## 1
Amino acid sequence: MSELLLGPGLFPNALLRPTVEFIQRSQLSDGCIPWFSGGHADPWDHVEAAMGLAIGGEYDAAAAAYRWLKNVQLPDGSWWASYQDGVAATDGHRETNFVAYIATGLWHFYLITRDRAFLLEMWSCLEGAIDFVLAQQSRYGDINWAVDHCGQPLDDALRTGCCSIFKSLECASNIAVTLGEHRPGWRAARTQLGRALREHPERFDRTWDSKARYSMDWFYPVLTGVIPGAKGLAHLQARWREFVEPGLGCRCVADQPWVTVAESSELCLALLAAGDHARAVQVFSWLDQWRGQGGEYWTGYQLAEDLLWPDQRPTWTAAAVLLAADALTEYSPACRLFTSTNLLDDSAICASSRSSESRFL
């Protein structure tokens, strides 16, 4: 078994350049990034893949990915859950965490490129997406996981999905500050959502079996800043043995003998966010064995059957590896996006807004 150890300043360009090229090669002419050649695309994983392109310096390709989202955005600010060859390929629902994730991608792109003009170009698209998502927030702070084909709420909340939205609201608020836009409601919604995630577990998984057996429900609160610092480290330690297979990676589901590369990569980010650099390096070192000859990565490994399963090497899995490598090596200006919380101060915008309003009183 090969091991790849990374540290600050040691981004493995030679190793991971083919990984970037794999994502770029998979991108369609309209900018859409499907899971793999001939496969479907969904808005969340599409954004994840676009972030991988940006880490690799493929800024035009990453921008094209975000413009594709702008071009296919629905009038209410949302996207369908799945697309095949640019056409909606779904039963008609739209997932809130899928819709919100464009904020994370756009902020990631800006941190690397400092292209404020591109943020301006994408602002109306972002604003529509966030307004759609926040229309699904309950008075308790949680956010409905989706709406149906008629736009009616599917009334329940996913912990992992809401954690992802929590990070996206941080990024959306930072974009608003950067563009001088006053959006206090976005910050208030983020505060309410964080409180629901930390203090009201009864608001999640109300109408289906608990998702606590999924590793994402375990580490996403740490990855997204819902549970910060030392509390995050204790949170990860409490269920470490349930989810982590030494030498292999992180299980997708605690009671299934299946480790996955994307979850392992995201666990690296959560460990870094919790200050556990040593274990983040260790987990990442196990992933090189799941790398394909063309720089892509297999979805995962089935322990009981001793086989790579399923027979897929998704673009978003490759991107998750790139995000983890970036964070471990502090390679790009966006390297700390998922390992720290950095909500920009909006006081100057607030003061300017109050001053403008006073002139009309």
## 2
Amino acid sequence: MHARQAIAVVSLLCINLVCRAETGVTPTTIILGQSAALSGAAKELGEGMRDGARAYFDAINAQGGVYGRKIVLKTLDDSYEAERAAANTKQLIEQDRAFALFGYVGTPTSNASLPAVSQAQIPFFAPFTGAQSLREPFNRNIFHIRASYFEETEKIIQHLTTLSFKRIAVFYQNDAYGKTGLDGVMRALKNRNLEVVGMGTVERNSTDVADAVNKIRQSDAQAVVMISAYTSCAAFIKAMKAQGVQPLFWNISFVGSQALARELGPDGVGVQISQVMVAPWDDVNPVVKEYKHLFVKPGESEGYVSLEGFVAAKVLVEGLRRAGPNLTRDGFIKAVESMSAYDAGGFVVRFGPRQHAGSDYVDLTIISKNGKFRH
């Protein structure tokens, strides 16, 4: 009788533990879901975020994981299309039962995923976008490790106006990403009693820039701030130069710096880009040394995007550690919020209960000869 009672009690405890187990968490694994462009015009961005993160997760897993749990990153291709990202998000939440979503690439794709994120109350960690739509209004589930597009465009406009450049045009992608960047430029100019002198658009995943070139060429702009992906920005720059029009060309970080430099070739010299990560070849920073040791192998080279994936993975793992062995989504969110000044190794993030934008770091770079970058 006593034995049967004991078995019943143990069985009941096991049932209760299973019921209380968090989605995506087992005794041996933590499942993360990612939707990113692995094909199409922005694929180097998706591949960079995925591969940089995997390099860090693989190193943690080789050490036994976090409290004995290996991190499993499931990445689905969305080709930088919002509808596919929304479908991927639904699959990652409902079928793959991810504990958290990580490293999404792009504003339209991230925006399309937000309804499912809010419904599931699932952490949405380190999206590769600086859009305000993911920052305002405040969403407890979303954490950023990169500066906003408003902060990037403010730094660019500050730099240009300090050099007495006042005729500034904008080439932007005709979607939520491009319009956020345009808003950032317009805000920064308005603060200086200036206005955009010309605008041209390109559709997402397109390189049809003829109309944009014509409009901006007629504006007689001294500088053009570009808010698009590397293929369309490269097409625009080449077309402008082919017509003998050579203003200063400025890009924000989402463009994909190394990919843009490769697309442009010799036409890239002098093109400038704002960055939200420390330089991936700067060995002064411990996180860069760690990244290069774990990521750079034959066939791989350092880059801003893969470094961002690496840093994002490192910050996430620190959050998992602080959350403790009894991992829950709510516990993870509170743990990340406790990271008031976490130094990932020369790159500091600061979070709090109402502060989920962990960094405002912006650097300005220029492409020099042979596709190299300098500050």
## 3
Amino acid sequence: MIASPFLTADVLIAYSAYFVGTASPGPSNLAIMSLAMSAGRRSALTFALGVVSGSFFWALLASLGLSAMLATYSECLVAIKVAGGLYLLWLGFKSARSAFRTEPLRAGTARQDEPLERLYLRGLLLHLTNPKAILVWLSIVSLAMSPAGGTSHTAPVVLGCMCIGVSVFSGYAVLFSTASARRVYVAIRRWLDGSLALMFGIAGIKMLTSKS
């Protein structure tokens, strides 16, 4: 009996590592949560689709040998870190500006004024400028390598991890767009936006000042 390539020990370890990294709080997840509570499910799912698209882009490059390219052109990673850090600082500024707004929100009213195309591009840009996403995919693909150095498990790992990513990101969008989550958001909006501003700001500065 031949074991499924999706259920080997190396592949399951890769799945577990990717799930932990994807489900843990980070800029993408927190942005999806906030958007789901403030603008509704459709907007959050569109943003999540952009995040997933960016993740798939890095997965594809990692499976095609991105590590060798980064070793040769290390300035590419530096440029990505700078762009990512600046983008996170911009997100922090937007969250801080929202935190200082004093107009009240109603629990039944969704803020859906931003075009879906722009939301998709925001999600895509957030993940394309995240060096952590690149390094995570490089480590995931390395876990998929066979002991002999082959890449026979790369396709199952990439496909499985993408399914996990879609489930996690869309799950956050659906869960935090419920009526109860919206009521919580109305009550804590300014505190949440302030926390997001702080988190994005710290992450952006850390990314810009990191030497690794």
